[in-house]
Amino acid sequence: MNLTLHVWRQSGPADPGRMVKYEAKDVNAHASFLEMLDVLNEQLAERGEEPIAFEHDCREGICGSCGFMINGEAHGPQRGTTVCQLHMRQFKDGDVLHVEPWRAKAFPVIKDLVVNRSPFDRIVASGGFVSLATGSAPEANLIPVPKALADRAMDAAQCIACGACVAQCPNGAAQLFTSAKVAHLNLLPQGQPERYDRALSMVEAMEQEGFGACSNYAECEAVCPKEISIDFIARMNRDYLKAKAVGVLKSPLST
Ligand code: SF4
Ligand code: FES
Q1: What are the Cα distances from residue 210, in Å, to 106, 165, 204, 213, 215?
Q2: Is residue 231's pLDDT more than 80?
Q3: pLDDT given for residue 248 in this prediction
Q4: Which residues are near ligand 2 (CB < 6 Å)?
Q5: Which of 165, 175, 230 to mutate to test the pocket of ligand 1 (most atoms within 8 A of CB)?
Q6: Listed residue (166, 236, 230, 162) closest to 198, CA to CA
Q7: Is the shortest distance between the CB of 230 and ligand 1 below 6 Å?
Q8: Are the C-beta atoms of residues 113 and 195 closer than 8 Å to each other?
Q9: Which ligand is nearest to the CA of 227?
Q10: Which atom of ligand 1 is nearest to 174's Cα?
Q11: Residues 44-51: what's their mean pLDDT?
Q12: Which whole-number Å values give the CA distances from 70 to 26, 52, 103, 137, 207, in the listed order?
């Protein structure tokens, strides 16, 4: 198939950037979107032009490195799919595709389709851990975890920190990401001692990073490649409000 691509090109953070048109010829329907860009980049390099910069690592939908907008949709048109797992058979001959980086104040563009997502790292550093005395690993079955809770925590732990939720949100909000990172620890017995401190600390870190407020658009849930539910945002808000009501805590509250 042949496609027309309009790709955002920006040489660096200070460059205002612009859309550049490319013709992608004889695209293999079985190629992934990133492989299609690889082929285009080879052609650009042969012509002495700068290849299009984009992030990737695993190309298996698990690392969270990849991600950009395709025709205004984060990770493209297929639900529950990262752009590295999106295949060209989702498109048809003659399609015109606009390819842009995540658009969010908190994610400034570094180059072309690459944005700076280090605010996510700082949110996780503020509370996305459990404090444990060092020593040998405890026997795994010493703390029984109810199956329903383990499953729910696993749903949240699937977040790969790709940033699509922020990019799709009209407010540039990071509630879905932050709530997933809060919930995957706050649901488990091991996460209880720091449950409310964690919610308070991570929400405040999120706010300091310049993300927008949540208005329940639910665009985040719609584009999340791991189909994380916005129910986790409600959970996070409950824990956060409870922590705010009694001040910063260093011990568990009764639930
Ligand atoms: S919540 Fe979903 S969209 Fe947001 S960072 Fe995690 S995996 Fe990506
Ligand atoms: S490259 Fe790892 S999730 Fe896409």
Answers
A1: 6, 15, 10, 9, 16
A2: yes
A3: 58
A4: 56-59, 61-66, 82, 84, 160
A5: 165
A6: 236
A7: no
A8: no
A9: 1
A10: 4
A11: 97
A12: 19, 15, 12, 45, 28
Alpha helices, H only, the chain: 33-46, 118-125, 147-157, 164-168, 175-186, 195-208, 219-223, 231-246
187-230: pLDDT as tens digits? 999 899 999 999 999 999 999 999 999 999 999 999 999 999 99
d(CA 40, CA 59): 17
Model confidence over 108-155: pLDDT tens digits? 999 999 999 999 999 999 999 988 777 787 787 888 899 999 999 999
Q: Which residues contact 61 (CB under 8 A, 6 or more apart)?
A: 81, 82, 84, 85, 160, 225
Length of the chain: 255
CA gap 132, 76 in Å, rounded: 40
Q: Which are the contacts of 196, defined by CB distance < 8 A and separation ≥ 6?
A: 239, 242, 243, 246, 249, 252, 253
pLDDT at 249: 54
In sequence order, what DSSP letters do the residues of 44-112 get, joined into one string? HHHTTPPPPP---S-SSSSS-----EETTEET-SSTT--GGG-BGGGS-TT-EEEEE----TTS-EEET
pLDDT beyond 80 at 69: yes
Q: Is the pLDDT of residue 252 over 70?
A: no
